[in-house]
Amino acid sequence: MNDVEKFKILVEKFNRMVIPKKKYEPSYLEICDYPWRRLEEICSRLFAFFFNSKNPHGLETLFFDTLVEVYQEKFFDEMNRIGAPRFKNTHCVEVEVEVITEKSNRIDLLLTTDSLKICIENKIDAPPDNDFDDYFSYVKKESEHFDLHAVCILFALCEKAEYENVNPNFK
After folding, report:
1. Cβ atoms of residues 97 and 37 within 8 Å
2. What mean pLDDT comes out for the span 22-39?
3. Is the dihedral of CA 109, 50, 47, 150 positive or negative?
Protein backbone atom coordinates (compact mmCIF):
# COMPACT_ATOMS: atom_id res chain seq x y z
CA MET A 1 0.00 0.00 0.00
CA ASN A 2 1.43 3.33 -1.07
CA ASP A 3 1.30 6.60 0.86
CA VAL A 4 -1.68 7.97 -1.10
CA GLU A 5 -3.77 4.87 -0.27
CA LYS A 6 -2.76 5.11 3.40
CA PHE A 7 -3.74 8.76 3.41
CA LYS A 8 -7.16 7.97 1.85
CA ILE A 9 -7.79 5.33 4.53
CA LEU A 10 -6.86 7.82 7.25
CA VAL A 11 -9.22 10.43 5.79
CA GLU A 12 -12.04 7.85 5.63
CA LYS A 13 -11.44 6.88 9.29
CA PHE A 14 -11.39 10.52 10.29
CA ASN A 15 -14.68 11.22 8.50
CA ARG A 16 -16.34 8.33 10.39
CA MET A 17 -15.18 9.60 13.78
CA VAL A 18 -17.69 11.29 16.03
CA ILE A 19 -15.99 14.30 17.51
CA PRO A 20 -17.56 15.30 20.82
CA LYS A 21 -18.90 18.82 20.83
CA LYS A 22 -17.97 21.01 23.71
CA LYS A 23 -20.94 21.85 25.90
CA TYR A 24 -21.74 25.55 25.66
CA GLU A 25 -21.26 27.38 28.95
CA PRO A 26 -22.16 31.07 28.86
CA SER A 27 -19.83 33.65 30.34
CA TYR A 28 -20.98 35.89 33.18
CA LEU A 29 -21.08 38.84 30.79
CA GLU A 30 -23.44 36.94 28.49
CA ILE A 31 -25.64 35.86 31.41
CA CYS A 32 -25.88 39.45 32.65
CA ASP A 33 -26.49 40.87 29.18
CA TYR A 34 -23.81 43.36 30.21
CA PRO A 35 -23.32 46.30 29.52
CA TRP A 36 -26.86 46.92 28.27
CA ARG A 37 -28.67 46.39 31.57
CA ARG A 38 -29.06 48.18 34.90
CA LEU A 39 -27.45 46.72 38.03
CA GLU A 40 -30.80 45.38 39.25
CA GLU A 41 -31.40 43.52 35.97
CA ILE A 42 -27.85 42.17 35.98
CA CYS A 43 -28.39 40.78 39.49
CA SER A 44 -31.69 39.24 38.38
CA ARG A 45 -30.01 37.54 35.45
CA LEU A 46 -27.26 36.15 37.68
CA PHE A 47 -29.84 34.90 40.18
CA ALA A 48 -31.82 33.37 37.32
CA PHE A 49 -28.77 31.52 36.02
CA PHE A 50 -27.96 29.99 39.39
CA PHE A 51 -31.56 29.29 40.45
CA ASN A 52 -32.26 27.37 37.22
CA SER A 53 -31.29 23.80 38.03
CA LYS A 54 -30.85 22.94 34.33
CA ASN A 55 -28.06 25.45 33.70
CA PRO A 56 -24.44 24.25 33.37
CA HIS A 57 -23.22 25.48 36.77
CA GLY A 58 -23.20 22.07 38.47
CA LEU A 59 -25.05 23.36 41.56
CA GLU A 60 -28.40 21.74 40.67
CA THR A 61 -30.96 23.09 43.19
CA LEU A 62 -28.49 24.46 45.75
CA PHE A 63 -29.57 28.11 45.33
CA PHE A 64 -33.26 27.20 45.58
CA ASP A 65 -32.69 24.88 48.56
CA THR A 66 -30.81 27.64 50.36
CA LEU A 67 -33.54 30.18 49.62
CA VAL A 68 -36.20 27.82 51.01
CA GLU A 69 -34.07 27.08 54.07
CA VAL A 70 -33.55 30.78 54.85
CA TYR A 71 -37.21 31.53 54.19
CA GLN A 72 -38.25 28.66 56.45
CA GLU A 73 -36.04 29.92 59.29
CA LYS A 74 -37.52 33.39 59.02
CA PHE A 75 -41.16 32.41 58.38
CA PHE A 76 -41.33 29.06 60.14
CA ASP A 77 -45.09 29.04 60.83
CA GLU A 78 -46.01 29.92 57.26
CA MET A 79 -43.73 27.26 55.79
CA ASN A 80 -45.07 24.59 58.13
CA ARG A 81 -48.63 25.59 57.21
CA ILE A 82 -47.94 24.97 53.51
CA GLY A 83 -45.83 21.82 54.05
CA ALA A 84 -42.20 22.96 53.84
CA PRO A 85 -40.51 19.55 54.16
CA ARG A 86 -41.59 18.53 50.66
CA PHE A 87 -39.98 21.66 49.16
CA LYS A 88 -36.58 20.28 50.11
CA ASN A 89 -37.09 17.41 47.66
CA THR A 90 -37.27 19.67 44.61
CA HIS A 91 -35.31 18.33 41.66
CA CYS A 92 -36.06 20.97 39.06
CA VAL A 93 -36.38 24.75 39.27
CA GLU A 94 -37.43 26.74 36.22
CA VAL A 95 -36.82 30.47 36.12
CA GLU A 96 -38.33 33.32 34.15
CA VAL A 97 -36.93 36.85 34.11
CA GLU A 98 -38.93 40.06 33.66
CA VAL A 99 -42.33 38.33 33.61
CA ILE A 100 -45.05 40.70 32.40
CA THR A 101 -48.22 40.85 34.49
CA GLU A 102 -51.73 41.64 33.25
CA LYS A 103 -51.13 45.29 34.18
CA SER A 104 -47.88 45.29 32.16
CA ASN A 105 -45.64 45.40 35.21
CA ARG A 106 -42.51 43.26 35.25
CA ILE A 107 -41.69 40.68 37.91
CA ASP A 108 -37.91 40.40 38.24
CA LEU A 109 -37.78 36.63 38.80
CA LEU A 110 -40.43 33.94 38.81
CA LEU A 111 -39.29 30.54 40.07
CA THR A 112 -41.46 27.49 39.43
CA THR A 113 -41.11 24.04 40.96
CA ASP A 114 -43.49 21.13 41.20
CA SER A 115 -45.06 22.68 44.31
CA LEU A 116 -44.16 26.39 44.44
CA LYS A 117 -44.40 29.60 42.43
CA ILE A 118 -41.96 32.13 43.91
CA CYS A 119 -42.02 35.76 42.87
CA ILE A 120 -38.77 37.61 43.62
CA GLU A 121 -38.52 41.36 43.29
CA ASN A 122 -35.03 42.88 43.50
CA LYS A 123 -34.62 46.37 44.86
CA ILE A 124 -31.03 47.46 44.37
CA ASP A 125 -30.39 51.19 44.46
CA ALA A 126 -34.11 51.81 43.96
CA PRO A 127 -37.04 52.53 46.24
CA PRO A 128 -39.78 49.88 46.50
CA ASP A 129 -42.33 51.78 44.44
CA ASN A 130 -43.52 48.84 42.33
CA ASP A 131 -47.10 47.59 42.17
CA PHE A 132 -46.57 44.72 44.61
CA ASP A 133 -50.32 44.07 44.77
CA ASP A 134 -50.27 43.38 41.02
CA TYR A 135 -47.27 41.04 41.40
CA PHE A 136 -48.97 39.12 44.20
CA SER A 137 -52.25 38.85 42.27
CA TYR A 138 -50.41 37.53 39.21
CA VAL A 139 -48.46 34.92 41.18
CA LYS A 140 -51.51 33.90 43.22
CA LYS A 141 -53.56 33.41 40.03
CA GLU A 142 -50.77 31.42 38.34
CA SER A 143 -50.30 29.30 41.46
CA GLU A 144 -53.98 28.46 41.77
CA HIS A 145 -54.13 27.55 38.08
CA PHE A 146 -51.37 24.95 38.56
CA ASP A 147 -52.24 23.99 42.18
CA LEU A 148 -48.99 25.47 43.55
CA HIS A 149 -48.23 27.52 46.65
CA ALA A 150 -47.46 31.20 46.05
CA VAL A 151 -44.55 32.85 47.83
CA CYS A 152 -43.41 36.45 47.26
CA ILE A 153 -39.97 37.65 48.31
CA LEU A 154 -38.45 41.12 48.23
CA PHE A 155 -34.64 41.25 47.98
CA ALA A 156 -34.02 44.79 49.19
CA LEU A 157 -30.77 46.65 49.61
CA CYS A 158 -32.38 49.68 51.16
CA GLU A 159 -33.42 50.85 54.59
CA LYS A 160 -36.15 48.73 56.19
CA ALA A 161 -38.30 51.85 56.70
CA GLU A 162 -38.42 52.28 52.92
CA TYR A 163 -40.33 49.05 52.39
CA GLU A 164 -42.52 48.81 55.48
CA ASN A 165 -45.65 49.70 53.46
CA VAL A 166 -45.08 47.05 50.77
CA ASN A 167 -47.78 44.39 50.27
CA PRO A 168 -47.61 42.18 53.40
CA ASN A 169 -47.48 39.06 51.22
CA PHE A 170 -43.92 40.04 50.27
CA LYS A 171 -41.45 38.78 52.83
Report:
1. no
2. 75
3. positive
